[in-house]
Design brief:
The complex is a heterodimer of chains A (268) and B (266). Chain A has 268 residues and is an alpha/beta fold. The chains are: A alpha/beta (268), B mainly alpha (266). Bound molecules: adenosine-5'-triphosphate and magnesium ion.
Chain lengths: 268, 266
């Protein structure tokens, strides 16, 4: 293991990864024979049409769902069995992921309670809530917050544990355009400074192109990798300049083509 | 205007309880109708006491009769019975809800036992324990454990999968998952169980006193019936109703204060 060279070390390695879901008669193959290597510190975006298996793949990466027995799935050289240390989810369904009896602050604390002293916890929770612009709502309960605010609480809960690996399932889907763009910049900045590996699912090509170091499009039933492209954008991203750059437009063009080709793919 | 001032001057904790005037008006009207009926149409039925007779009987029972001791007896028995039943029901419901095998092995028996009408256990308890306080307690505890048991087990089993997944993904320990996620999620169901159980424990204490243990309000009402004292029987009925209402009110108030954060959940 060449563990010391942070840039090139692998975070994820999967070989011939297949996933079956459902019980009995209804059991179906959702993902088949997927090979993928994700280096540490990479910001990987996964695109694909609804129902293709993006959430399923993310849950397999996070150890919440098992792959088939002959699949190989390793994180930092170790087989993934159950949620790995240092990995944290931001779930697609925010309403079902916050504890309704806890305030925003107490929700964000959840991941820190076993590991961090009370004082250090308070500091990190406050910082995380500030990052998502919710410092004023720390003492509100989820049912007092809008959908977008609830999703930001979930995001803060993930950031507060200072994860090595962030698994995000359409985290910005419920947000308005302004908040969304601000959080994209913020997330990218946090990823750059913390050196976390991010696997980010989205429906939105522009969001993927803006955020990613690398983009994968899933396609087919069962799903496998359609295209796999590296971004040539500079590490620093900016909502105005990045989106005007030729690299951005070129990548956007390629990804759009790949995403729309799958719809006509069956015929020609 | 002066009423408004009085309201403002009330202590803080009292201000939370608004008097339900329309509800009180209906009760007052009911009493008035009852009085009217027993003085006119019902005047020749000796077995129906008027409101005034009932209140006079109540006064006599309270100051010269055995009412206070009987009330205390029923109150204490149903409280103790409820506490024991809640503890037992909660412990068993917890075991059933948390350990899948326990659920599988016990649920069929629970369904059967629970569907036997609770009154039929009175005879069994009488056979075993005779006319005694023991009979009364056993009946109260046996019957009122079910709502807590089922509420706890069911509440735990229906913890939303999304929350369990959050607990798993944050690598919460088994006990942290139970105390921080599963039990709070089940709490509204458990509380419904506590409330049903309280109502049942009062009812069953009275039933047991009527047939199994010659003490308390239940015995009082049977005694007045056998002595053909309709006014006293009505007075007992009133006291039993007030006891149930009062205890439920206290429980709801306590729950409301303890679990204020639950907002719309409880
Ligand atoms: N528990 C399950 N049992 C059987 N099939 C399932 C189960 N969960 C999901 N599926 C199927 O797996 C497929 C992929 O689902 P998944 O949630 O991963 O899609 P997705 O790409 O995340 O879609 P979306 O973009 O709409 O969130 C779907 O076709 C769905 O029907
Ligand atoms: Mg999904």
């Amino acid at each position: 293991m060449t563990d010391s060279s942070g840039e090139s070390a692998l975070a994820f390695r999967c070989r011939a990864l297949s996933v079956d879901l459902g019980v009995g008669e209804a059991r179906r193959r959702i993902i088949e024979d997927l090979d993928l290597e994700v280096p540490r510190r990479q910001f990987l975006c996964i695109l694909g049409e609804s129902g293709v298996g993006k959430t399923t793949l993310l849950r397999v990466f996070g150890g919440l769902v098992d792959a088939t027995a002959d699949s190989v799935l390793e994180l930092n050289g170790e087989r993934v069995v159950g949620p790995p240390q240092g990995a944290v989810f931001v779930f697609q369904n925010y309403a079902a992921s916050l504890l309704p009896w806890r305030t925003a602050r107490r929700n964000v604390e959840l991941g820190l309670e076993a590991t961090t002293s009370k004082a250090a916890r308070q500091q990190r929770v406050t910082a995380a809530l500030r990052q998502v612009d919710l410092a004023d709502h720390a003492d509100d309960y989820p049912w007092q917050l809008s959908g977008g605010m609830q999703q930001r609480v979930q995001l803060a809960r993930a950031l507060a544990v200072e994860p090595d690996l962030l698994l995000m399932d359409e985290p910005f889907g419920a947000l308005d355009a302004m908040t969304r763009e601000n959080l994209q910049v913020e997330l990218r900045r946090i990823q750059q400074t913390s050196g976390a590996t991010v696997i980010f699912i989205t429906h939105d090509v522009d969001e993927a192109v803006f955020l990613a170091d690398r983009i994968i499009v899933l396609k087919g039933k069962p799903a496998s990798i359609g295209i796999d492209v590296m971004s040539r954008l500079p590490a620093e991203r900016d909502q105005v300049r990045t989106k005007e750059s030729p690299e951005y437009l070129e990548l956007r063009h390629r990804v759009y083509e790949a995403v729309s080709r799958r719809s006509g793919g069956g015929k020609e | 205007m002066s009423a408004n001032r009085a309201l403002v001057a009330r202590p803080r904790w009292l201000q939370r309880y608004r008097v339900n005037w329309p509800g009180l008006a209906v009760i007052a009207a009911g009493i008035a109708l009852w009085e009217l009926y027993s003085r006119t149409l019902g005047a020749h039925f000796d077995s129906i006491a008027s409101a005034t007779q009932t209140f006079q009987a109540l006064k006599w029972l309270l100051f010269e009769g055995p009412l206070l001791a009987q009330l205390l007896h029923t109150l204490i028995v149903s409280l103790i019975g409820w506490l024991v039943a809640s503890t037992l029901g909660f412990a068993m419901g917890l075991a059933i809800g948390i350990w899948r095998p326990v659920w599988m092995y016990t649920m069929a028996s629970i369904e059967v036992l629970r569907s036997i009408p609770s009154i039929s256990f009175v005879s069994i308890a009488l056979l075993i324990f005779g006319f005694s306080l023991q009979t009364e307690l056993v009946i109260v505890i046996y019957v009122s454990q079910w709502p807590v048991l089922l509420g706890t087990a069911g509440g735990i089993r229906s913890t939303p999968g999304g929350l369990l997944e959050v607990a798993r993904s944050f690598r919460l320990s088994r006990s942290a998952t139970i105390f921080k996620v599963i039990l709070p999620a089940a709490l509204p169901n458990i509380i419904v169980g506590f409330r049903l159980s309280l109502t049942l424990s009062i009812s069953l204490a009275v039933v047991a006193e009527m047939v199994g243990n010659p003490a308390g309000l239940g015995f009082g009402i049977v005694f007045s019936q056998q002595a053909v004292q309709p006014a006293q029987a009505f007075a007992y009925l009133l006291v039993i109703g007030l006891l149930g209402w009062g205890m439920n009110f206290i429980l709801v108030t306590v729950i409301g204060r303890v679990f204020r954060g639950y907002g719309p959940l409880v």
